[in-house]
Structure formats: structure tokens, C-alpha cells
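In the previous chapter we treated chains in isolation. Here, by contrast, the input contains two separate entities that must be folded as one system, with a combined length of 416 residues.
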Amino acid sequence: MSTFLVEIVTPERKVYEETANMVSVKGVEGELGILPNHIPLVTPLRIAPVTIKRGGVVDIIAVNGGFIEVRKDKVVILAESAELARDIDVRRAEAAKKRAEERLAKREQIDYHRAELALQRALNRLSVGR
Amino acid sequence: MATNMRDIKREIKSKQNMKQITKAMEMVAASRLRRAQQAALASRPYADKLKEVVASIAAGTKDVKHPMLETREIKKTGYLVITSDRGLAGGYNANILRKVTQTIQQKHKSADEYALFVIGRKGRDYFRRRNMPIVEEVIGLADSPTFADIKSVSSSAVKMFADGSYDELYLYYNKFVNAISQIPTETRLLPLEEISEGTKVSTYEYEPSPEGVLEVLLPKYAETLIYSAVLDGKASEFGARMTAMGSATKNATKMISQLTLTYNRARQAAITQEISEIVAGANAQS
């Protein structure tokens, strides 16, 4: 089975580096499943979990504010933050979710967009963390 | 003479205390410097990769138009200044603030022509005292700042350029060379300089389109540049502090030895005088 290298890099450090068989991401235009020898591609990503299959193992990573660069033998995901399930503080994400929902309920114009993004991030983390 | 001796002794004691403190600060700065350097190094792959992709889009597609790449007529200028929260770091803050002030005085006649973004308490206090217009400030930054810490200031600095609040953005920070040398540096962040390296053109598919990708990537790229400058600034700060405290410790040592010498002389003089008084007394009796 052919494989390729997957890297996830944030401004602070390299979060993930493994050889994988398949990567599945949610791009701005829709879901993408990337197998080896994919055509070179660059696209921004939505705030969503990234699924990486290697051998029999499936890694799920919460990626926020990033984009993906696909090359023949390598996939690089650059993101503002990226967390593996074990690094996620579920309680904190839940608190963030609650906070964001309260803000959205109040419908404050200025922070509406920000609260929406915060909610997306929290939900993303929760879906990976659980 | 005796009182004078006590004075000198007290002074020696106080210098010793000071030396202890500066020595401790030097060592703390040294260990933090190492960490800050590592952080600066760890941030490099992200910035490099981003640059590579942006450059390849710029090179691959001939006529990309993006407001962040266009040079406009300059009516107003933004300055982002990176300073430290605490002093005792030698010329670290003074150098960078002097450079900014000089530039502003040369280029602008009134306070309407520029806007300031400040990172660090020292810089904020400095500009506030002079009633210069601060748009946004970040203080109390951690020793190894995360991207989220400076996200708000960097994204608003980039956003304000994009919406035309000012027409260029300069970045001022201390570039880290090594532990004993930091260079106050001015770089023009926006509009972005030509970033095409030319040679390496990899053909990518872009989703939704090259312009669409650029739209997302360019602000990110600018923010990343700010983040690396902050990390560089942190490393410089600790380097500067380490050097400053090192030389303070050395000076303290020198003063202590000087004072000890004076003290011993005074003691000797006091003893000599006492002896001569006793001898004189004995002579008078016989």
C-alpha cells in the first residue's frame, strides 16, 4: 500500500509528522479525501477535524484556521492551531462553547462573527476530544 | 574615622546585595534566552512554508491583484513597535524607541499622519507620555508568547491596512543576532514586498481560485511575520538583559574590591592612630 508523508505545522511548532495512507479534510469548497499521488493542490480549510489514516490507526486532529498544501509525496497542513485528541482540554472547550453560545444569544453585532468562530472552534475541539 | 569605616562597610554590604540580584537576573535571562531562541527556531517552518506557497502563487499566476500587494499613495502610516514589559535590559527599549521617534519626527508633521501599535509596557508608557496616538497595545506578554497572544493585535494591524486606515505598515523590533548583539530593525511589512523567488515554480491546483487562496494566505503571512518578529524581539530582550546584568555584576565586583581596599586603608589608619595615641600617652606618663 502506498503511503505519503503528512505534516501539520503551527506557528509554534510541528504538531504532527507521520507516514499515512489517506487524509480527509474539509476545504472551503467541500470535503476532500487525499490519497497518494494526488494532484498538487492548495486550498484553505474550514474549522473542522482532520482525519488521517495510517495502517490500521486513525488519527483525528482539531485544526483551526489553516490551509492544506498537497504534493505528490507529501501533504502539509498549516494551521493557526492544531490539537490531537489527547491534548484537548474538554472542559475548557465546553466552557468556551457555553460562552460563545451566550454571546450569540445576545446578538451583539460587533462580536457576533467572533463568537461564531469561537463556537466553531469549541465544537471542533469537542468533536475530536470526546 | 570609626564612623567612616562603618559607612564604607554598609556600602560594601549594599553593593554585595545588588550584585547578588544582578547575578540572579543574568542567570534567569540566560536560561530564558535559550528557550526564546528555541521558540524562534520552532516558528520558522511555518513561516517558510507559508512564504513558499505565497511565492509560488505569485510566480505561477501572472497578474494577481490583491490590495495587500499594491502600493498606494501614502497618506497615513502605521507603526508596529515591539518593546519589553520590563526594564533593566540595557539599551533594548531605548534604542528601538529612539529609532521610531526619529522616523516619526522626520516623516510626519502632525499626529494625524500616523498610528501606533505597541507591544510591551515600556513602549506603551513612552508613547502615552508623549501623547502619541496608540491604536492598540499588548502588555504582559508571556516569556514564550503563543500565536494566540498576539493574534488580535497582528490581525487588527493587517485589517486596518486592508480597509485603508493607513497606506503602509512598518515593523520595529530588535533583531536577534546573538546574545550580545541586537540590532534595532525597521522593516516595511505592508504592502508586501515582491516575494517571488522566481526559480521554483510548482504548479498547483487552487481551490477555489489563486486569488481566493491568496485572499486567505496573505493576511496570514503578514501575521506570521509579526509573530516571528515578536519571538525575535523576546530573544533579543533576554540577550540584552543578560548582557546588561552581566556587566552590572562585573561593575559591582569592581566596586566592592575598590571599597574593600578603602575600608582596609581606613582600618589601618585607625589602628596606627590608636597606637600612636597609646605611645604618646605612655611617653607623657614616664
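The CA atoms of residues 118 and 212 of chain B lie 31 Å apart. The domain at 27-244 of chain B is CATH 3.40.1380.10 (Pyruvate Kinase; Chain: A, domain 1). Compare these points with the single-chain example from earlier in the chapter.
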